[in-house]
UniProtKB/TrEMBL annotation:
Protein's job: Ligates lysine onto the cytidine present at position 34 of the AUA codon-specific tRNA(Ile) that contains the anticodon CAU, in an ATP-dependent manner. Cytidine is converted to lysidine, thus changing the amino acid specificity of the tRNA from methionine to isoleucine.
Molecular function (Gene Ontology), one example: tRNA(Ile)-lysidine synthase activity
Species of provenance: Pelomonas aquatica
InterPro entries to which the protein is assigned, alphabetical: Lysidine-tRNA-synth_C (IPR012796), Rossmann-like_a/b/a_fold (IPR014729), TilS/TtcA_N (IPR011063), tRNA_Ile_lys_synt (IPR012094), tRNA_Ile_lys_synt_N (IPR012795), tRNA_Ile_lys_synt_subst-bd (IPR015262)
Pfam families attached to this UniProt entry: ATP_bind_3, TilS, TilS_C
Top-level taxon in the UniProt lineage: Bacteria
Main location, first listed in the record: cytoplasm
Name of the protein in its database record: tRNA(Ile)-lysidine synthase
Amino acid sequence: MAASATPRTAEPERVAVAFSGGLDSTALLHVAARSGVQVFACHVHHGLQPQADDWALHCERVATELGAAFACEHLAGAPARGESVEAWARAGRHRALHDMATAAGADLLLLAHHRRDQAETFLLQALRGAGTAGLAGMPRAQWREGICWARPWLDQPREAILAYAEQHGLRWIEDPSNGDARYARNRLRQTLWPAFPTAEAALAQAARWAQQANELAEEVAAADLATLSGPERLDLAALARLSPARASNALRAWLAQHTAAPASLVGRLLTEWRPGGTLSWPAPGGALHAYRDGLFWAEAPGHAPAPAEIDLGRPGRFPQPGWRGSWLVEAATPGIAPARLARVVQRSRAGAEQFQRAPGSSPRSLKKACQEAGLPPWRRGGPLLFEANGQLVAVAGLGMDARAFAAKDEPQLAVRWLEDSALPQSEGDSEAGA
Ligand SMILES: Nc1ncnc2c1ncn2[C@@H]1O[C@H](COP(=O)(O)OP(=O)(O)OP(=O)(O)O)[C@@H](O)[C@H]1O
């Protein structure tokens, strides 16, 4: 889910409150309901505990008493094999809260996380060896798909919330699973707070420092990538001239645009790459390739589509979704007779093809032609276009075969291949859906 930290500017008319029925969100709902805006209490029924039905009823009663509208969504399904219950519940809760806030017409969703939650998050992240992005903990406000998720009490000590709830005689649910030592957060709570009762403020402050350091690192990465990378290629030679910390910061940011690479891959890539080296590293969803001192991301190839006859006999863009790209046909010279392009067979490379780059040159193996043109190995699979008689017409990434060119004064169309990844995101999306 794409997220941005741009602050809200307009005053909201409607507010959604993520309402579990616990102490904190009950107090938050109480405050919101007294503020004069229209409030929607959104409850997620995880279906994990026998009391979940009673909790939903309790939440509805409290919301009604406070004059707030109430919505409840049941999570369907169960964790996948190997997925933790916590991760499954969190992902489902986020989806459900987003859906309920959207249905209520509220673009502001309040969560009742407070300073102690932030302090615990900081430590849990530290225990996992997180970098500044993880140590920064939960953001105060974050836009995700049209909804601003806000945590107005992130700086509030837990005691202040408890005092408010007691002062107003609020009733709330105590979730017995909060004491379940199978969950890391509960184990941490049970040991940390008795031993360090006053550490909450200091740990939350440490999270704020991490947040600042992280913002700074993001700014530096954006500035570095503006000079080191184009739409597809990261300049590894220039990256290697940066200080090690700055190089891994920029590389991490570039990788994040393509794949959820493990942190260890950043280190491996920087140590294993040598100038001029051709290397590949598998990464979730595809692979990274170092080629001619550039780093490229290639999505894992699907099955090559079956050979098919297509009509490219007029100018335009012809998306080939199975091949993740389009043929672009324009009136230009040199080109190919439209009648020949109207019936071409598109297929992957078979192995023995010969390609002729220019009218005066001699045909050579496709592999040699690709090397000469600097077409990287992972881009050499196709598609290729052929006439019915087997004559090669064009190769994605290389261009037209000169043997297919029309005579100078004949009508002709030039054909070239455009990868989806080379298009601006919105354009690629709209075409893919067509
Ligand atoms: N089942 C739920 N339905 C709606 N919102 C929830 C739910 N569980 C958690 N939240 C939201 O996420 C916040 C943090 O969740 P967390 O699990 O720490 O709190 P909790 O112990 O369930 O309840 P509380 O924070 O209200 O005391 C809650 O304050 C609440 O805003």
